[in-house]
Write a structure and sequence with these properties.
This protein has 184 residues and is of the alpha/beta class. 38% of the residues lie in helices and 18% in strands. The model has no long low-confidence stretch (mean pLDDT 80).
Amino acid sequence: MSDIFLPEGRLLNTPENCRLCASAAGLRKAMERQIILEGSALMAKPDLTLQVAVGPFMGEIPREETAALLAGLRWIRFVRLSCDTSAMLPVIEQATAYLREAGVAPSRFWAYVLVQDVADAHQRVLALEGMGITAFAQPYRDYNGGEPPNEQKAFVRWVNIRSVHNSCTWENYNDSRRRTRNGR
């Protein structure tokens, strides 16, 4: 088996991958010959169990295996998480505990933070940083293409520009966009 892998998605629709994934016999053949196949990750459950599909077959990879697989991926620099609501914090804390146990360095954890309510997003950023996770804020944009309010933009700037973030608190951040009266 090769230790060199093509980028994710490159094998998924190749004729060989499709042919071998189409039947149990094809999967056995690939396993015997140590051929790398590609399937789709459908969903990660809160306990980090990964639901996958390979051809017409569906299954689950237990959380211990998922964590071990992620720990072994050296070509992916960060393990990316998403924290759109405060309800996700316990799930993220549990998932990162499994990943740390499997050997993933805390410096590889990175989380997207959706910013709608700035106060709530601020609490999530602080909680993520308390877990050793680097946060990356994204302002909410509605489907009508409206611009995010200025306070959201200022908060995103404070979170994402690490030199600014590390030099002052959000409360002490002085950005001219925060001082506008209409919030836009």
